[in-house]
Amino acid sequence: MKRPTLKLPKKAAEPAAPSQARSTRAKWAQQQRGKKPAAATAIATPAPESSPPSPPKRRARPAAPAQKKREVRPHSSRPPPQKSAQPAPRPPRPVAENPDEPRLSKRLSELGLCSRREADEWIENGWVRVNGQVVSTLGARVTRDASIEVDAAAKKHQNEQVTILLNKPVGYVSGQPEDNHQPAMVLIKPENRWAEDPSRTKFLPGHLRGLAPAGRLDIDSTGLLVFTQDGRVAKRLIGQDSEVEKEYLVRVEGTLDEAGMKLLQHGLELDGVKLKPAKVSWANEDQLRFVLREGRKRQIRRMCEMVGLVVTALKRVRSGGVSLGPLPVGQWRYLGRNERF
Questions:
Q1: Which CATH number belongs to the domain containing residue 310 in this structure?
Q2: Does one domain contain both 300 and 326?
Q3: Which neighbouring-strand residues pair with 333?
Q4: How many whole angstroms separate alpha carbon 281 and alpha carbon 97?
Q5: Is 94 exposed, middle or buried (0-12, 13-18, 19+ CB in 10 A)?
Q6: What three-state secondary structure class fits 108?
Q7: What is the DSSP string of 60-92?
Q8: Which has more confidence, 11 or 134?
Q9: d(CA 305, CA 314)
Q10: Which structural domain range is residue 125 located in?
């Protein structure tokens, strides 16, 4: 009797070692890239099983872009800019050193060319020559025989200046504000210009610049008040040597005899100074007409008080050859080109 034969299952083929499989794949990959197998094997050979596993590699950060180097230019051979040289000193002034000689501004005024204030402006602007040389220093003195010339620009500037006539109402002061009373200057505005002004001068805001009263009227007086930019006009009306007549109509209360009339005409003193002769006459039964060649503060009112009269109203109606005429109270007009004080 035959013994049964036991068939043992065939042993499965042992899988290739991991290192061999990896090496084979690496060789194939290297062959595809055209590289040597040895190099691939060396790269793909794993570490021995006994060695500890290596830590995972960190992902490399992308390199920062290279900064563009700043181009350094060579220094220019041009020399550094130099500060402007100081202006050359002016030649010696052609003026007198004698303190007894007049100042240039006064000399211009004495010659009737302009007022002292206007002369200072001309000198500062370089419009005045003395003996052929420009003098622009205020306070410079000159000899009386010095040759003085005025630039045409000064004459042009003078011809562009204006003079304004205002019929001042009661309650306004002539100059700066006093005791909460407004100056009469505030009335000189386009809406207060007399509609029948014969002058064709166009009003400009610049006409108010430098405009100043050439004379004064008391706050309780009315009538002709002159404002001007022209120093020649101011000098003629209020200069020390002014002989321009000013005419007033004065309403009075009281009795005036012949002796009192003579005192008003010539014979009174104010503040220790004898007054110049005046022309005084009756305009009507209660109004006197005064014509004066001087203008002291409140002169007419004080003169009337000395002879027993009380002034109730005072109005200036003329300055030199310029009359107030029909100009309404509170309105103004330009001085005409053919009018002269």
A1: 3.30.70.1560
A2: no
A3: 165
A4: 52
A5: middle
A6: helix
A7: PPPPPPPPPPPP-PPPPSSPPPPPPPPPPPPPP
A8: 134
A9: 14
A10: 104-159
Token pair for residue 144? 């009386």
If phi over 0 gives left and psi between -120 and 50 gives alpha, with beta otherwise, what is residue 328? beta
Give backbone dihedrals phi and psi of 47, rounded to 5 degrees, phi first. -70, 155
Residues 313 and 259 in one domain: yes
Count of the separate structural domains present in the chain? 3
> Is 61 inside a domain boundary?
no
Q: pLDDT digits over 283-340, tens only?
A: 999 999 999 999 888 999 999 999 999 999 999 999 999 999 999 999 999 999 899 9
Does residue 22 or residue 191 have the better pLDDT? 191
Tokens of 27: 């060789």
Give pLDDT tens digits for 258-268.
999 999 999 89
Tokens read off for 179? 């005791």
Identify whether residues 239 and 335 lie together within a single domain.
yes
Q: Is 17 a domain residue?
A: no
Report how far residue 240's alpha carbon sits from residue 164's, in angstroms, rounded to the nearest whole number.
22
Please identify every residue annotated as catalytic. 218
Residues 340 and 254 both lie in one domain: no
DSSP lists the bridge partners of residue 325 as none
Which residues, in sequence order, are CB contacts of 194 under 8 Å at separation 6+?
Answer: 327, 328, 331, 332, 333
Give the whole-angstrom CA distance, residue 250 versus residue 98: 50
Residue 65 falls inside a structural domain? no
Instruction: Give dist(CA 211, CA 207) in Å, integer.
Output: 7
Tokens representing 319 are: 């300055």
Tell me if 51 is assigned to some domain: no
248 within 8 A of 315, measured Cβ to Cβ = yes
Claim to verify: residue 205 and residue 260 sit in the same structural domain: no
Tell me, yes or no, whether 289 and 142 share the same domain: no
The Cα–Cα gap between 84 and 191 comes to: 53
Tokens describing residue 261: 């009339």
| pTM greater than 0.90 (yes/no) | no
Shared domain for 229 and 253, answered yes or no, is no
Q: Quick one: 157 exposed, middle or buried, by C-beta within 10 A (0-12, 13-18, 19+)?
A: middle
What's the pLDDT score for residue 42?
A: 45
User: Nearest 5°: phi and psi at 300?
Assistant: -65, -45
Over residues 150-163, the pLDDT tens digits come to 998 888 877 788 99
